[in-house]
Design brief:
Length: about 500
């Protein structure tokens, strides 16, 4: 059997994991909103039309932040269409996804829904077909307390208190030719800067403390494969460095893109380098200014996007079935590896959004009028969000590698998180498709360890969950858990092609 070692020390840490790394995304796309989180008349819907069965799964998933309303959608969105009395809201052609948008659900409903779901709203403004003035208006509507036309309009619409939304995305994927109102880096950087200026005026109290400081996310290049990648990020940041807090990065993968092993290693081979490259650009822009400010990363779209669905879809209908990928166990292993990459880069990735949340390339599926269920990728996300809260230990991992193209792929992918009570969780994927992997875990500075729980996902990699069999793929308890207290190193054998969560009580 092949073997690997992981060495870590209690006091050698990368950083704390920001809870915002366990975010997700709801776009006006397909059945994400209508038939997903919102379905008046559904047996579980409350008086606002919010599906309670979906909300229960979202809470179980452990989502902390949700980005809204897009995505590509936001680049043509008129936010005013989605406020005020529902019967007066206009239906419009939605050009990003060729649907009809009725605007029944808008910003106020979204913020109400976030409060009910106990998660943080993250709003995007349209910097495609619109610009700084409209962004400033939307900000005033949402966050200004009272006494101005737009804040009073919010109050008249039933929201006395400001929404106090902190996270604001300045547009979406603005270097993409598919984006309505796509821009050059010069055009966009300027628009982002002016938007941030019009949205936020420091709101000081008498002692000079800022009462409410929003955080701005500026669009990085929409993908590592873009010709604009890198140059765009630098040119945009050169213009708005002083005003923004995060640079966004996006990436998706598909089993169609690679051989099975390379597919599972996407987190290591693509996301990790992407994070390090974009971080270097942020720091280079800071260095030129001799600035100690650090622009962090918002990885606000990431997932497996299988792209299996039959086309064409029904154009100009309301909430058509679109991008409803049905995920396999292999996809869950890939997503597990991506989560490990995000956590291991917790010193620079401070926000991340699994794209998306319900029905559209999502961990949760629903049927209109019917049930909601967990896809395979639900499980690694839920485990990471529950047990990945704490400090990531800096590990030295050595294990077998396999050559694939220009990459040496590590068969082991792992991350160690020390919780605040001192317990340690190991997240690990054994990517060996044929054989188990023996792993020596040498946790220095932890005199005694007890493997209290070990949950595994393994088996037939093509297996899926469906409405008829919603729990076919789910974690099982490994029999080696709840063992004796031992001294480090501890040796465990990870089953072939598996996602593992090992909880050590110390
Ligand atoms: O998540 C689906 C789409 O992917 C988003 O609308 C867009 O931002 C990205 O290209």
């Amino acid at each position: 059997m092949a073997s690997a070692t992981i060495i870590a020390d209690r006091d050698f840490v990368i950083d704390r994991v920001s809870p915002r790394v366990f975010g997700s995304f709801i776009e006006h796309l397909g059945r994400a909103v209508y038939g997903g989180i919102y379905e008046p008349g559904h047996p579980t819907a409350d008086r606002n039309g919010f599906r309670q069965d979906v909300l229960a799964l979202i809470r179980e998933l452990g989502v902390t932040v949700v980005r809204y309303p897009g995505g590509n959608f936001v680049s043509g969105y008129r936010w005013e269409d989605g406020i005020g009395p529902s019967e007066k809201r206009p239906a419009r052609r939605e050009l990003a996804w060729m649907s009809t948008e009725t605007n029944e659900f808008g910003t106020d409903e979204f913020v109400d829904w976030c409060r009910l779901a106990q998660l943080e709203p993250m709003l995007a403004v349209n910097l495609g077909t619109r610009g700084p003035a409209e962004a400033g208006d939307m900000y005033e509507y949402c966050n200004h307390p009272a006494g101005t036309a737009l804040s009073d309009l919010r109050i008249a619409n039933g929201h006395r208190d400001p929404h106090n939304v902190r996270l604001w995305c300045l547009g979406n994927e603005m270097d993409g030719s598919w984006q309505m109102g796509a821009k050059t880096a010069q055009e966009y950087g300027r628009s982002a800067l002016e938007s941030a200026k019009l949205m936020y005026y420091p709101d000081m109290n008498r002692s000079g403390t800022d009462l409410f400081k929003p955080e701005f996310i500026v669009c990085g290049s929409s993908g590592r494969g873009m010709p604009t990648f890198g140059t765009w990020d630098e040119q945009v940041l050169e213009q708005c460095f002083d005003k923004v807090d995060y640079l966004s990065v996006h990436s998706y993968t598909s089993p169609r893109n690679a051989d099975p092993l390379s597919y599972l290693a996407f987190g290591d081979t693509t996301m990790g380098p992407l994070i390090r490259e974009v971080t270097a650009i942020c720091d280079a822009v800071a260095a030129k200014r001799k600035s100690s400010k650090r622009v962090h990363l918002s990885y606000d779209e990431w997932n497996v996007w299988r792209g299996d669905e039959a086309k064409p879809f029904a154009a100009w209908t309301k909430a058509p079935k679109m991008l409803e990928d049905v995920y396999t166990l292999a996809d869950a292993l890939c997503v597990g590896g991506m989560l490990i990459t995000l956590m291991n880069h917790c010193d620079r990735v401070k926000v991340a959004c699994l794209a998306q949340l319900v029905n559209v390339i999502a961990p949760i599926m629903t049927r209109n009028g019917g049930p909601a269920w967990r896809q395979t990728i639900f499980h690694p996300f839920a485990a990471a969000s529950r047990l990945g809260r704490g400090t990531v230990l800096r590990q030295v991992a050595n294990g077998p590698t396999v050559k694939s193209g220009s990459n040496d792929i590590n068969l082991l992918s792992s991350c160690l998180v020390r919780q605040d009570n001192g317990d340690v969780t190991l997240f690990a994927v054994n990517r060996d498709l044929e054989k188990p992997l023996s792993v020596d875990i040498d946790l220095r500075g932890f005199p005694k360890l007890r493997l209290a729980n070990w949950s595994v996902m393994d088996g037939d990699l093509a297996e899926k969950n469906t409405e008829a069999q919603p729990d076919r793929v789910k974690p099982r308890s490994h029999k080696a858990a709840a063992g004796e207290t031992q001294s480090s190193p501890v040796t465990v054998t990870l089953p072939k092609a598996s996602w593992n969560v090992l909880e050590f009580a110390v």
